Amino acid sequence: MNLANALTISRILVVPVIVVLLICEGFWTSVISSVLFTAAAITDYLDGYFARKYNLESDLGKLLDPLADKLLTATVLIMLIPLGRVPAWMVAVIIGREMAVTGLRGLASEKNIVIAANWLGKYKTAFQCTALIPLLLHYQIYGIEFHEAGMFFLWIALFFSLWSGIDYMYHYTKQVIV
């Protein structure tokens, strides 16, 4: 156990807390879930930073980090559906892309093919987080329509999800055929 892995595990542990907060829907539970999600998103950056800076990279971290990211974002997206904050079809497309890319990574790994993450995936992640924070907050505060802002960024996240998924499949296919 090291600092980077502890941050990753904290991201996993916050997921059930956010779920309970969303089940108990209300203004303050929305605020708290948004703050917790924001903190978890920051730990995603910090765990990678500490792992690289202090040479704390580990097999456990390589396994848990992407799992924690997907668990956090997929759970929040799914929990927002029955609250009427996001359309189910958008969530299905975003999670479907995640599953497809994860499957391709597994196939690529078996063939010793490495397809590096690129800027499209980083944009996808950034826009997903940028969308989910206001979607969790949801309410109008000081004249700011947080739900509308969240949906604006979710559309952008959907665009980058599709583009990066297609790009990943293209590069995988290109390396398999060659």
Provide a descriptive summary of the structure in words:
The protein has a single domain (3-177), classed as Up-down Bundle (Four Helix Bundle (Hemerythrin (Met), subunit A)). The chain has 178 residues and is an all-alpha fold. It is built from six helices and two strands; from the N terminus they run H-H-H-H-H-E-E-H. Strand 1 and strand 2 form a beta hairpin. Helices cover 81% and strands 2% of the residues. Helix 2 (27-53) packs antiparallel against helix 5 (119-137). It starts with a helix and ends with a helix. The chain is globular, with a radius of gyration of 17 Å.
CATH fold field value? Four Helix Bundle (Hemerythrin (Met), subunit A)
Put simply, the count of helices is 6
Strand content: under 5%
- Give the low-confidence spans: none
Question: Numbering strands along the chain, what is their spatial order in the largest sheet?
Answer: 1-2
Going by CATH, the homologous superfamily would be CDP-alcohol phosphotransferase transmembrane (TM) domain
DSSP helix fraction: over 70%
Q: Compute the average pLDDT.
A: 90
Count of DSSP E strands? 2
SSE series: HHHHHEEH
The assigned CATH architecture is Up-down Bundle
Q: Shape from CA axes?
A: globular
How many discrete domains? 1
Please outline the major beta sheet: 2 strands, antiparallel
- Alpha-carbon Rg, integer: 17 Å
Main structural class:
mainly alpha
Kindly report how far apart the N and C termini lie.
40 Å
| Top CATH class | Mainly Alpha
